[in-house]
Amino acid sequence: MKKTIYILICIIVLFYTVETVYSASDPSGILRIKTDGASPKEHQALSMTVDSIPSNSPLQAFCIGWNFTFTNQEVSSAPVSVYVPLSGINTGGGTRTYTFPLTTGWTREFTGIEGGKSIRDLVDNKAVYDKIIKEGCVVHANAKILKYKYTEGKPAPMGTYSNGANSPPNVFADTWKDIEYIDVNGNRCGNFTEFSETFKTNTKSDYYELSLTLAAEPIPLPKVALELPENNSTVPLGTAVTFRGYGTGCHHIGGFVDGKIYGTEQVNPKDDLNKEMTYEVTVILNQAKDYTFQIKGRNTALAEDADSVIAVSEIHTVHVVAPEPDKGNIHIKCLDYNTNKIISDSTISNISYGTSKIISGPEINSYCAKGSYLTYGGKASLIPPLLYMQPGVLTQSVILSDTDQNAYLYFWYEEVKGPVALIDAPQKVQAGNEFTVSATRSYCKQAGAVITAYDWSTGLKQASGTVCFENPGTYSIKLTVADSNGLKGSTVHEIEVTPPTPAANINISGKLKENRKIVISAKLSNTPNFYPMRWDKTEWYIEPDIGTGATWDFGVKLRDGTVIKLLQNTDQRFLNGQSDFFFQARDSGIYKVKLSLTNTYPANDTITGTIAVTEDKPPVVVLEAPNINLRENENPIDGTKRKFGITAISDKSYSPDGDTIGKRIWSYRYNSSNNTDSMGKDIFTDDITKYRYTGALSEPFLPEEGSRLLVKDDNSETAELWWYDVGLYRIDLIAEEVIPFEDTIKELLLPSDIRSSVITGW
């Protein structure tokens, strides 16, 4: 059986969807230091802001963590290395900021860290790490990137778990060489060689070998505060008062009475000067005069040290009076219920003997009274234990006498802690886009208290809602929450609002093949909600990439039904204002598409893409028939006459690219003279081509007819050749594909565009 197959060329349009992996747009400024502005000490975090870059679907890659090393040879010969896994993998597009606090106490937003709230939480040798951070160091950062594959429209990690655990090593990149490198023989090596060149170049430069120098912590500015004794208080001669103050950022603090140092300075016993230290002594006031009290603190050991600064508190004055005859004093001390330390103390002097005096606990902001205790036999310097407290007794009746000249009245208070305001909101948004702000993570420190009110600077009065800024800039959002005790807490969140530039997107759908109707659409383009797209300003331009096989032999159909065949000099302005349209090409090659969009701000964006048009494969024709054929059927008129043969022929033709074969044309020839050419091949050129039998099947098949080809219809996959004469018969079959009406722009279709194949020679 001889076959001759003629193949015709067709077109397939491929437009790969583009997914994203995060990468920075400015390699020189990717890794940087961020502070939270907290007081008394700012906390630092490492921050990386990255944008999206393309990677061909269905393969994808996402950052699942970062490897950091912190080096200071003067502190430690070996650097501190730590891997920081992300608690959540973001598979969306757009800009993203990674923020990793260096130490505990960070007060602002941060990227979720799996297993901790700061890098320090994940470090094994925390003592060395703390010293390196304090003294300054060089920080190196390298991303950990994992391959993903799209399954049912969702990205799935190419490993056992989303954090990469138990995954094969060839799906990771821990260094830039794991992405791709060229070996000494010029071979491409690495785990991501199949990804696009843009992905590989940008990822290697923007995700690996990032570094910065973390400066040593500066010497903090000292701050001091005087708490006791209370300013402008009056006490009797001989009173022992508590002299208490606090300092932060201080190497040492000291107390000054009447402008002179009292006792010795107290040196900060803690390694971190930013941690608060307390100065506390007792001073007996044995002169009837006005005493002055003040706290001073210095941030260095000596005044001549570099960056040395001294801080001074306000001055408190205490008036000391001599006792009058037949009069005594009531000493009132307010104590902390949890620590039993003095919150405040005061004295009511010159109270006449025998007079009943009702004393209530003074109001102290953010504290509530728990109980009291009265004694006449104490001393001003003594503080009774908590078990002496009479719970719920908030007033006492005091009567002084010549035997009880001094009363000591103690009130215990418990601190009522105010609520903590927390804001969840993005770091960066586009002008004109609504975004959500939430205060749901705000909480009350005080047991039993609940948040009763939310007050946002944007005007919101509930826990969460949406906000929209119409213009670019940097904005501050302030949140104040109030609790059931009437206390308030506030916080501020800064947000960067970028220009409302639309994001153009060229989306391709339909049957992507030669002479097929392809939808080119801009409807998946994005623009901020407040600034909708001006579709009437949309501009398109399509052209072939000459040299790839593409030609100007293509056309479009608009949504209103207008069909236009494009030529090289065709003005394409008719495409402007279209959000989508149909495209159809005849020749294979690369076609370039350009889209420009404008929104109502106005802002614009332009994107270019390519459509790879490939061959539409013709059908593959395959015939099957018996190799040996015998005359076994009786003559329908006279059984004594010679018999005839019936040969069943099956067509196994198929379309390799899924098209439908819609028509089959069967024919045959009989080499009646059995002649051959000089090469010994059978010659059928002098014989008549016969087609399917069209007569009535009831007509008997007689020897004088010679042969008959029975085919059921125009697309039958089987045929029968009835024959009387032995010899060579050649079966010819033309298999022709059909293009459904709904799959093509019929006005652009030519008869030659229908793909077919011919087989001859059984």
Describe this structure in words.
This is PKD domain-containing protein. It holds the Pfam family PKD_4. It comes from Ruminiclostridium sufflavum DSM 19573. The protein is mainly beta and 762 residues long. It folds into five domains: 16-214; 223-415, Immunoglobulins (Immunoglobulin-like); 419-498, Immunoglobulins (Immunoglobulin-like, Sandwich); 507-614, Sandwich (Immunoglobulin-like); 623-760, no CATH class. It has four helices and 55 strands. The strands form 14 sheets. Strands 15, 17, 18, 19, 21, 22 and 23 form a seven-stranded mixed beta sheet that branches. Strands 5, 6, 8, 9, 10 and 13 form a six-stranded antiparallel beta sheet that branches. Strand 11 (181-182) and strand 12 form a beta hairpin.
Describe the structure in brief:
The protein is 4% helix and 44% strand. It is mainly beta.
